[in-house]
Amino acid sequence: MWVVVLRVPRGLGAAAAARRFTEVLAVTWVGSQATKVLRLGLAVGMAPAVDAGLTWLERALRLRGRGQALATAVAGCVGVALVLFAGVVALWS
C-alpha cells in the first residue's frame, strides 16, 4: 500500500492547482486499472472468510440478521479509518 501525504504550496494558483489535481487523478485512475484483476481475485477468494466473519459477528453480538452484522462491521471499519486519519492529521500538524 502506498500512502503519500503532501503539503499544498501556498500561492500555487488556480491553473497550477488544477494541473496538479489532474495529474493525481490520472495516476489514481491508472493504478486502479492496473490492479483491477488482482482486486477481483482477492474479493472472490476472500468471500468465504468474510461470510464466516459475518456469521461469527452475528452470533457473538446476538444480532438479528446479516444486515446488522454487515452494518456493524462497516461501522467498525469507518471508526478505525477515522481514528487513523485523526492520528495522521495530529502528527502532521
Give keywords.
3 helices, mainly alpha
Query: Share of helix among residues?
Result: over 70%
**What's the average pLDDT?**
89
Structural class: mainly alpha
> What is the number of strand segments?
0
Radius of gyration, whole Å: 19 Å
Q: Could you list the spans in which at least 5 consecutive residues all have pLDDT below 50?
A: none
Counted up, domains total 1
Number of helices: 3
First-last Cα distance: 23 Å
**Fraction in beta strands:** under 5%
H/E series: HHH
Envelope shape: elongated
How is the main sheet built?
none
Describe the protein in words.
- With 93 residues, the chain is mainly alpha-helical.
- The chain has one domain (14-92).
- The chain has three helices and no strands.
- It has helices spanning 14-34, 36-60, 66-92.
- Helix 2 crosses helix 3.
- The longest helix has 27 residues, at 66-92.
- It is elongated, with a radius of gyration of 19 Å.
- The chain starts with 13 loop residues before the first helix and ends with a helix.
Brief summary of the model shown:
The protein is an all-alpha fold and 93 residues long. The protein contains three helices and no strands.
Secondary structure elements and pairings:
Blueprint: H1 14-34, H2 36-60, H3 66-92
